[in-house]
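Course assignment 3, question 2. Fill in each field.
Student: A.L.
Task: Predict the tertiary structure for the chain below.
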Amino acid sequence: METQLQVEAEPQAQQPAQAPAPAKAWSLPTRLAFRFGFVYLVLYSFPGPLAFLPGADSVFGWYFTATQKVVIFAGAHVLHLGQPVQYVPTGSGDTMHDYIQNLLILVIAGIGMVVWSVLD
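Answer field:
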């Protein structure tokens, strides 16, 4: 005779699924750095690769014209440079026009960071 053991599985109480722990909030310096970096990157990259699309000249032409005028104005009236700033497309980014444009992007990114932080 064989003895058979019958083992019944005990019903296990189902535990409710635990929600994931809430993400730790970013500190103020981290939020400010992210906001500044994001605004700077968007401004620096715009219109970026979009400018190479067919017909983009008609869409973004106003942006390039306005940017050049603002940079020349800032060089003459804000920075009080001794000689006028000229836009010369060299492709290197190593011109006075490009330096002033990057300075303006930094300033606008700082303003954007402050506005974003106030609205948050």
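Instructor remarks: The CA atoms of residues 8 and 14 lie 17 Å apart. The chain has a mean pLDDT of 86.
Grade: pending
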